[in-house]
């Protein structure tokens, strides 16, 4: 396949500086660009991706909430290229040529405005910060984590096993990784303070119409600031303490931002991974014929979900360092590129027969390149998700959906791919 990019002459903008003025509203590429949100995208995103591919190819103009123009990278090869060439498509969002048009209360601003976080660091600084997180995660014993998750799963199942009915999204799929992650970071999994923190991080990433994501993010940041202060004074055998004690010498502000990133990246995507996998198991005949010991394994279901219903469907993003061409489109310096992870995973160019198999793990659900989810993060997420699914099916072997599959709805998020609820029925279990 030919190189997806055709760099033009570089601009005179320095790294980190704002690029040339944004494309005007009448720019042909964005005049009739679709909004990357709404009911159609929420319920049937694959149809939107199919339409965009037919009209624009692998790179399509879209608008974010508030009418902010961006590019959606739909192609597997193109996403891989963008994430592998930081010299062309960088992570520091201060390059964005749209900041002057973005209001202070823009819902996505908390996670896109530049912070002293590993998310926005580049080059040697990113390697330093990511190295700290990697070394902290490497201290987590996967066997002990599985034991912890099984204990958490058993306790959660006990709360509804006798009723014969449950709503698994909030009471199980959300609660289990939340408790596991905060415990790894040194917080009490059962405190109201912790519940509030995770709720606020969820709102920040996946806000409903009545939510205030900016206020939620600020509350979450204040809670993590208290945690860092506590761990400075009284360190323990937890991720927060290990990050603080690392020879790289992260400041408290850097540690706060990286812990927010770590918790947010581990909690909500893993929640969606668990729930999306349970949905597949309960609605697909390849699994549902015998859900506790089906013809295909839980591991295969988990992997198939990463291809077909990846927990994070879009990631914002990358910012063009200079004028360039990508997938036949002219990308201007400072333009925002949204990484269409779900679209790339289902790219017909990599599945030419129209059949998307789950027999390999070359999906982009954990990202790609230097800024991908740091190792061994994906392995730990797999331990949490696999233990959650397997324990539920062992305890409730005859579990079935309590509604018709078509009645299940998806949350209205352009970033996350997760159900609003997953109601189920099963034979009550006497404790």
TrEMBL record:
Biased composition (Low complexity): 8-21
Superkingdom as given in the UniProt entry: Bacteria
GO molecular function, one term: iron ion binding
Name the record gives this protein: Cytochrome P450
Location of the region described as Disordered in the Swiss-Prot/TrEMBL record: 1-33
Protein family per UniProt: Belongs to the cytochrome P450 family.
PANTHER family tied to this protein: CYTOCHROME P450 YJIB-RELATED, P450, PUTATIVE (EUROFUNG)-RELATED
């Amino acid at each position: 396949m030919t190189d997806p990019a055709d760099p033009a002459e570089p601009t005179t903008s320095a790294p980190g500086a704002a690029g040339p003025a944004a494309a005007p509203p009448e720019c042909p590429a964005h005049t009739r660009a679709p909004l990357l949100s709404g009911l159609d995208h929420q319920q049937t995103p694959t149809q939107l991706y199919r339409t965009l591919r037919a009209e624009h190819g692998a790179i399509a103009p879209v608008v974010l909430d508030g009418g902010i123009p961006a590019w959606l990278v739909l192609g597997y090869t193109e996403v891989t290229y963008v994430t592998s060439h930081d010299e062309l498509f960088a992570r520091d969002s201060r390059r964005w040529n749209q900041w002057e048009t973005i209001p202070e209360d823009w819902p996505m601003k908390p996670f896109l405005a530049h912070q002293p976080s590993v998310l926005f660091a580049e080059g040697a600084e990113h390697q330093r910060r990511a190295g700290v997180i990697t070394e902290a995660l490497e201290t987590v014993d996967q066997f002990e984590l599985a034991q912890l998750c099984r204990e958490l799963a058993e306790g959660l199942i006990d709360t509804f096993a006798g009723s014969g009915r449950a709503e698994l999204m909030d009471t199980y799929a959300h609660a289990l990784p939340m408790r596991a992650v905060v415990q790894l970071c040194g917080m009490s999994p059962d405190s109201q303070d912790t519940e509030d923190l995770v709720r606020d991080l969820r709102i920040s990433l996946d806000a409903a119409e009545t939510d205030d994501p900016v206020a939620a993010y600020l509350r979450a940041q204040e809670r993590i600031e208290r945690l860092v202060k506590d761990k400075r004074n009284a360190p323990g055998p937890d991720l927060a303490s290990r990050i603080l004690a690392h020879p790289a010498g992260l400041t408290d502000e850097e540690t706060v931002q990286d812990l927010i990133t770590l918790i947010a990246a581990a909690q909500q995507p893993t929640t969606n991974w668990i729930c999306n996998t349970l949905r597949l198991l309960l609605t697909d005949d390849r699994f549902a014929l015998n859900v506790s010991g089906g013809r295909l394994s839980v591991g295969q279901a988990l992997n198939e979900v990463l291809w077909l219903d990846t927990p994070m469907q879009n990631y914002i993003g990358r910012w063009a360092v200079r004028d360039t061409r990508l997938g036949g489109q002219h990308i201007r310096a400072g333009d925002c590129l949204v990484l269409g992870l779900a679209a790339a995973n289902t790219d017909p160019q990599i599945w030419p027969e129209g059949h998307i198999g789950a027999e390999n793990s070359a999906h982009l659900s954990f990202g790609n390149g230097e800024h991908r989810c740091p190792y061994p993060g994906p392995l730990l997420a797999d331990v949490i998700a696999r233990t959650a699914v397997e324990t539920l099916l062992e305890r409730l072997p005859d579990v079935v959906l309590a509604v018709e599959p078509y009645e299940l709805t998806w949350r209205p998020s352009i970033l996350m791919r997760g159900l609003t609820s997953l109601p189920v029925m099963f034979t009550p279990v006497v404790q």
